[in-house]
Amino acid sequence: MTLSVDLRHRFKGFELDARFEAPKGITVLFGRSGSGKTTIVNAVAGLLRPDAGRVAADDLVLFDTARSLWLPPHRRRIGYIFQEGRLFPHLSVRQNLRYGAWFSPKRVTPAEVDRVVEMLGIGGLLERRPGALSGGEKQRVAIGRALLSSPRMILADEPLAALDEARKSEILPYFERLRDEAEIPILFVSHSAAEVARLATTVVVLEGGRVTRQGPAVEVLADPAVTPLGARAAGAVLSARVARHHEDGLTELDAGGTALFIPRLEAAPGTPVRVRIAAHEVILSRQRPEGLSALNIISGEVQEIRAGEGPGMLVSLDTKAGRVLARITRRSAKALQLAPGTPCHAVMKTVAVAPEDIGGQGRDVSK
User: Fold this and answer.
1) What are 209-231's pLDDT values in tens digits?
2) How many domains, the chain?
3) Is residue 218 domain-shared with residue 250, that is, in the same domain?
4) Residue 4: beta bridge partners?
5) For 147-202, how does the pLDDT look when each residue is reduced to its tens digit (9 = 90+)?
6) Where is each ABC transporter domain found (predicted)?
7) Would you tell me how many other CB atoms lie within 10 Å of the CB of residue 133?
C-alpha cells in the first residue's frame, strides 16, 4: 500500500503546500519545529480539515476537496501513536490492547494478539496498569493497541520525544521491527537526525511548509544540502554487514568492501545494518594517514563542497562504502586544496559511533 499526500492549508503566519508519497515501511517527516510535520499527520488522520488537497491510500480516497469527499476519522482505520502513550489509566495493558482490537473491522484472533505481544515484548506487562509502566513500556503498549485495530496505516507524531535516551534506546528496536514486519505505510514525525538515520525507509524533508527533498534515507541524509537542523545534524548513512567480532570488544563491518570498526554490536555475522556517521566526527587527509589511533580510514573522492554561513564547510566524498560527509573549516579546505574530483581519505574514530547511530538496515533502504 502507498499513501499519496497532496495538501494545502493556511494558518495565520504559516502556509502548508506539500505533496509526497509514502510506501510501505517508515516514511519520516523530517524538519524543524513549525515546518508543518504535525499539520500533515493531523490532516491525514482527519483531525484537521485542510483548505485543499487530496489524500489516498492506494484506491481508497480519505479526502479530496475537488470532489467534496471527506471520510470521517473513525472510518479511516488509522492507528495514531502520540508523544505520550495516552493509555486508559483505569484499564490494564491487556484491556488497553483489547480496546484497539475492538476497532478492527475483522475479528482479531488470540494468535494475532499473541504475535503483537511477542513482537513488542510486553507479555510480562499484561496485567499491569499504565501507572506502573515506564515511558518506553507505555509506548510499546500504545504501538500494540494501534496495530490490533488492523489499521490501513500508522501515524506516529514524535513518539520518542518525551523519552530519555535510555528509554529511546529501549524502544527504537521495536519501531525497526514494526518497519520491517508491518505491511502498511507508517508516517513518523521527527526532528532527530539520529532517529531518521536509524528508522527511515523514506525521508520527506520539510522547511517552512514545503517539501524540499524526498527519497530513500541513505540518499537524502547523505545530501549536504539537507541540513534542516543545522550543520551539527549533518551526517551520512552507510549500509553494511557484520563481518566478525573481535576479542578486544570491537565489531568489524563490511561496508562495500571497506572494513569499518565500531563498538561491539550484538548481531550475528552477516546481519545487515545501517550506521550513521556524523559529519563533525570525520576528518580529511589528502594522503593515507599512518600512526593514528583512529581505526577507520575510508578512501574516496571529493564529490561536492558546500560552504556554510560561518567558517565551516560540508565536504561530500564518494567512497566504496557509500557517501560520506565531513564538516571542516574553510581554512582546512583551502590548505588541503580540496575541489570536486580530489582524492581524499575520511578518518573516523571507532568510539565516535554511538549505539543510537547503529540500527537494523530493514528493506529497500538502498533503492
Assistant:
1) 999 999 988 788 777 777 565 56
2) 2
3) no
4) 21, 56
5) 888 888 899 998 888 788 877 887 888 888 888 887 888 999 988 888 888 889 89
6) 2-233
7) 18
